[in-house]
Amino acid sequence: MFDQNRLSAWVAGVTHQNPLPLRLELWNGQAIDFSSEAPRVTIRVPHPSAARYLLRPSLSNLGKAYVEGDIEVRGSASDMIRVVNALARSTLKADGKLARIVRHFTHDRRKDAEAIRYHYDVSNAFYQQFLDPDMVYSCAYFEQGDEDLATAQVRKIDHILTKIRLRPDQTLLDIGCGWGALVLRAAQQFGARCVGITLSRNQYELARERVAQAGLADRVDIRLQDYRDVRGTFDRITSVGMFEHVGIRHLPEYFGIIGRLLAEDGVAMNHGITTTDPDNGETPYGGGEFIARYVFPQGELAHLGAVLKAMQQGNLEAYDVENLRRHYARTLSIWTENFEANAARIKDLAGEKRFRIWHVYLAGCAYAFDQDLISLYQIVCGKAGRHPRSLPWSRRYMYEQ
């Protein structure tokens, strides 16, 4: 049976520690405000059994309750995430409050392909509702800070291709090519000959259409292929937003494969999300658990130090490391705004449950990047022990037009 006194004590404890712009609407019609400030978020608890989620309000518990329809939440996603994080900080005990669990998954070709299909093969129309016109599903690059999303995504791609000093007729492998934006740009503007690989059939089919429409079928080859099955040698290799699916224990193998595929004087660049926990733990308060359950099955984040170690174990040397955490926080904020602006269409395309998952996922990630709970690094690298003749001595070339 539900204990009303326990709920009242929890409300009193939270409001004493951290008054919030939150209203709680109970099944019996009672409304409880957590501060004198006008509520920006309302949580409706439609039946007594759902109150248990509030008494231990981890991001995983409340996220599950929201997604499964056990509670209703009104308010913008960014306000929801701020309030829920505050509830977790005010409630969870010290021994668990900041704990960042290290979780490892078993990775093989079948499981990795299933995880990719689960996340990416929702529908291309779904992603079109919140991404830029080129459908670049990774951190944008805001050179001045005030660019629109489409401009910032083109600048990100150009920033990457300039960093690796891509030249006409060089061969480029893009691991996890998405809907083809990077390889199309590399062929059109840099004159490269490109191979893009993905495990998502939706991405594969649309990327091939775009290549054909651009008249670049002779310079861009899109493949439905696992990175472990690629053969050949490439002058340049890029991997953007893909290595999070590899698994921490498999990173040395992953970087070793990149090294094997890379030409002797070749240059590679890995662009990916990292945890800020030195022990490779997930985001705190159960955020990582929610994402693993509903968004990115099999996903694992490594700390930058672990990434650089694995890169060295894979016989690669890091030449340059750049932190783009602030850029991803802004990218995700724009995606969240676009998502909310197109809410009706997204619900039609993906259903109410998936809408709720992505609603909190996008805003939650924006918050996590903003608060330095996760980060993102671009690492330029090459075969260890070589003298990269293709790269200038200074970093100035990265910013020259």
Automatic annotation (TrEMBL):
Tell me which InterPro entries the record gives.
Answer: CFA/CMAS, CMAS, DUF7884, SAM-dependent_MTases_sf
Q: What class of enzyme is it?
A: transferase
Q: Which UniProt keywords apply?
A: Lipid metabolism, Methyltransferase, S-adenosyl-L-methionine, Transferase
Which is an annotated GO molecular function term of this record?
methyltransferase activity
CDD domains for this protein? AdoMet_MTases
Which Pfam family, any one of them, does this sequence belong to?
DUF7884
Q: Which GO terms describe its biological process?
A: methylation
- In what residue span(s) does the DUF7884 domain sit? 17-93
UniProt similarity note: Belongs to the CFA/CMAS family.
Name the PANTHER family for this protein. Answer: CYCLOPROPANE-FATTY-ACYL-PHOSPHOLIPID SYNTHASE (PTHR43667)
Report the protein name in the record.
Cyclopropane-fatty-acyl-phospholipid synthase family protein
The organism named in the record is [Empedobacter] haloabium
